[in-house]
Amino acid sequence: MLRIPCPHCGLRDYTEFLYAGDATKQRPAHGSSEWRAWYEHVFLFDNPKGAHLEYWQHVQGCRQWLVLERDTSTNAVGRAWLARQGARS
Amino acid sequence: MTVLSHYSALALARRALFGTSWARAWRKPEPRKTYDVVIVGGGGHGLATAYYLASRHGISNVAVLERGYLGSGNVGRNTTLVRSNYQMPGNTEFFEHSLQLWEGLSHELNFNVMLSQRGQLVLAHGPVQLDVLARKGNTMRLNGIGCELFDRSDVQRFLPFLDYSTHCRFPIYGGLFQPRAGTVRHDAVAWGYARAADRLGVDIIENCEVSGFLRDGDAVSGVETNRGRIQAGRTLISVAGHSSHVARLAGLRLPIESHLLQAFVTEPVKPFLDCVVSFGAELFYISQSDKGGMVFGGHIDGFNSYTQRGQFPKASTVAECAVALIPGMSRLRLLRHWAGIQDMTPDGSPFMGRTPIKNLYLNGGWCYQGFKATPAAGWCMAHTLAHGEEHPLIRHLAIDRFERGNGSDEYGLGLWTYKQ
Fold it and tell me: How far is B360 from chain A (nearest CA, A)?
């Protein structure tokens, strides 16, 4: 079972969380009409085999959005912090 | 091709009487320096592409590079189902072409792939769902694909052991039956295509991992591998599950995330389920293998991963689906479960054809439907590699379709259904 170290609730099963994908993506500026930037933001993924920074929301706990370090080739979990602190912390 | 290497009743009798051993089914060649076509990935699709290149297009100077051993990837990790009940223009024709190729495949390859056309029944658990299935059935019939719409009493006569009780959470309203759907022995598909391609001169090179692409200006001119540098006229990436990982070596980013899909088999029991059944209330499908095990699978685990190891909560959900559909399965024990890596795409359809890089081709993004597509994917990619232009059946699957706002939305639910 994948377990996530929530900064508020401690180590919890991943089934309490909602997975929300790559946390390193930068949304284009509000009002931007650069279609290429939007296309890349919405559709293209690095999808790395290895280190990955990703968003999870603790929907069945504190309801906070988190950023989690996880290795996609082993599922080894690293640190987790609140998403409002930024993707790189 | 020698007479002895041909599989037949006579060859079997000769070996039974004289005790001679069987020849190796395919060679173990050293990679040459140059090929007309290099196919990265020795799964079902890559091997089928090589076979059709050699048999239909006369291009046999081909190498198939496999990182592990043949059959170690998704071709041996699926639930072996084949069917053609699709409803989007393009998909219907493509998957029907695939089913027709399955029907002749054992003879074509001189290798018994054990196609068993036992039929597939997709269930509806509400009147609206049954209307949707009726519409899908009409689309299939207009394309010449036989199917039958069952009402509740038809289903009950056909499969009396499903849950028809009054307290049932998802009552059965009916279903859509495709009689020509069925199962195939999946290992035999890899071995059959490999042996047939090898006999036509294709080099199948196992334990050969690609670590980079050779460039000649703006074109790809071959691959760098752990067994040396191999030059190629055209290069195909056919590694679904790892498409992002390999494409990135060529500097391509794809609209793909890699997810896990688990499959399960129970201890063997006497035969009682003689068709494939798909539950309509969750993504769940089940059949009984020739050995008697109940083979079934569900939805992806829900977060991207390359581990090939499933998470327990999904196993629990899938077991609940099994018992909700067939209460009699509640005391069966699971024998094994395993996971394969899927390329998930925004619209649930694959990417096939040319890439923005010259002489580099892609066949990937198969979501959960790669196995049934194996023969047609090989057929169409062989045509595409031979002519440098996409086969008509795969023109709607171009890699740049989201840039053009032109996704192929098979489920009719918009994009990203797998994330919902």
Answer: 19
Provide the shortest C-alpha distance from residue A51 to chain B (in Å): 11
Q: Supply the range of the domain harboring residue B150.
A: 120-180+258-344
Mutation target among B211, B249, B299, B304 for the A interface, most CBs of A within 10 A:
B304
* Residue B10 counted as domain residue: no
Q: Is the pLDDT of residue B1 over 70?
A: no
CATH of the domain at A63: 3.30.2270.10
- DSSP of B12-34: HHHHHHH-PPPPPSS--PPPPSE
The string of DSSP codes covering B350-364 is -EEEE-SSBTEEEEE
* DSSP line for B54-85: HHHS----EEEE-SS-TTSSGGGTS--EE---
| B376 and B284 within one domain | no
- Give the tens place of pLDDT for each residue, B178-191: 999 999 999 999 99
- Which pTM does this prediction carry? 0.95
For residue A72, what are the domain limits? 3-25+34-85
CA distance A17 to A3: 10
Q: Based on the structure, what is the number of domains in chain A?
A: 1
The amino acid sitting at B241 is G
B306·A73 Cβ contact <8 A: yes
Digit-coded pLDDT (tens) for B85-133 = 998 889 999 999 999 999 999 999 999 999 999 999 999 999 999 999 9
